[in-house]
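From the shared-data thread, chain only:
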Amino acid sequence: MKKAYYGDFGGQFLPESAMFALNELEGAFLKFSKDKLFKKELNELLKTYVGRPTPLYFARNLSKKYQHEIYLKREDLNHTGAHKINNAIAQALLAKKMGKKKIIA
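Structure, as tokens:
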């Protein structure tokens, strides 16, 4: 993993004991983020399990009050009632492809 800095502040600072796992994760991410079959499987999980894409809802009363068309993206309709599952599903699928048997999220 290359040294990563983000402007004058912040960056990537980890204990040496975590570097092997992080390098392994980075390699898997770079590999599978370009894999069409991985993306297809992830999109299928997001569609069939999570319920994506979530619908847009026209907020009539808010639109009337503020005199603009206002739409709400209904992430609360996801299987777990929040947006967090989108990331968790992707992490779990990546871990599975890496041959991992356990995951801490």
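Residues 36-50 form the longest helix (15 residues).
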